[in-house]
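Standup notes
- DV: blocked on the single-chain target, sequence here:
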Amino acid sequence: MTHEEQHQPISPSKKDRLRPAELLGLSAVLSVFATLVILMATRDIKLALICFVIAFIVCLVVFALAGLGMKPNPEDVEARKSIDDAHE
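- DV (later): unblocked, structure below
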């Protein structure tokens, strides 16, 4: 490899850049669903808002832990190796 090839930045794909937004959106949708269920059952706005916040945080944590537990695909492994090689 030449010196220029080693220092070219690796830009993530559009799918990789939008992944966090997808997780936030899915967490928000699930939280709204839980909030509507609580709101229809109790008709208490404060309790429904508290449920929304708790459900949103729980969904984010669950999705983050699920993402950490997934096996990386071969493309990610190669990208990490090339980054590590560039830093050495």
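- Follow-up: The first helix runs from residue 3 to 6.
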